[in-house]
Amino acid sequence: MQRNAGTGRLSRGVLTALAVVAATAGIARADACIGDIDEDGAVGAIDIVELLSAWGDASSAGARGDLNGDAVVNSADLAALLASWGSCITLPSWALSIEGSPDPAVVTDPSLRAAIAATGLAWRVRERASGVEMLLVPPGAFMMGASPGDALASPQEFPVHAVVFPQAYYLGRYEVTQLEFKRVTGFNPSYFTGPGESAPADRPVETVHLAAVGAFLNATGLRLPTEAEWERACRAGTTGANYAADGQPIESIAWFAPNSGFVTRAVGLKAANPLGFHDMLGNVWEWCRDWYDASYYQYSPEVDPPGPSTGTFRVIRGGSWYAPLQNTRVSFRGAVWPAGMFGDVGFRVARDP
Questions:
Q1: pTM here?
Q2: What class, spelled out in words, does domain 89-351 have in CATH?
């Protein structure tokens, strides 16, 4: 399917899919959390206080305690609240909970927090087998490819096209560290293991080819993100060439050639993006699940694109400690030989709920 490179519009099919996603999420959330009046992810004592404070006629006041919508707050609403008592948040069986609801200090955009809450899934979890911390990326859509006005964009970043994700997914908050990799596989292939600016255990694992990555994934049930999943999480609702806030220099979010000292650094030292992910740009390149095709954007599906079915090279994203500004952009697409082992290539993991 050939795309129109210049429209930047969501197709009717994508808009329909988004409407279904929004409606389904809203219904599921309402059913599971009908008594969560204060919207903190649980039905508890504070919600009872809210309900009792609104007791009586609610026909004109629009009281939050009117759970069944009959214009009166009474024993029926109290019964509905008590029936939904407890946590409204679902925790995947493979995860340990760290934080159920998104922290406003981390996910600063109210619309992103609302989208996460609407899923009914825990926001911040730890994968049991590896100890990797993961954050939820909610369903939604974004424009994939070259950022508006990005003079450094190359032909492989066009056409800009709409991508929609009907389902949420989890992504590693940080790049997989040397400690996490060794804990699972029993070895550490990394080049940067000596003393330096950062302790080796906290640095991202690198010099790791796809077969070694596969051993880690097979042992944990984790997977690599698709290229589209990676860019959606990296952009996190932003539209610029990088996710730095207005007036924030790129050096505040990324370790790249001008500021890295040409070594890896401990994960998480730079500012996070609006979804809470660190080092999406810089430090080490990150393997993606996709085979590389420079023309893939011309025919990729709009809904959850899986990448080409075959290829010679695999996609890497995000730039590294060795990368110039040209490569340290959310839309830049790199490609390397799957058996390659490079001191600036590591990975980040994903998992479905």
A1: 0.83
A2: alpha beta
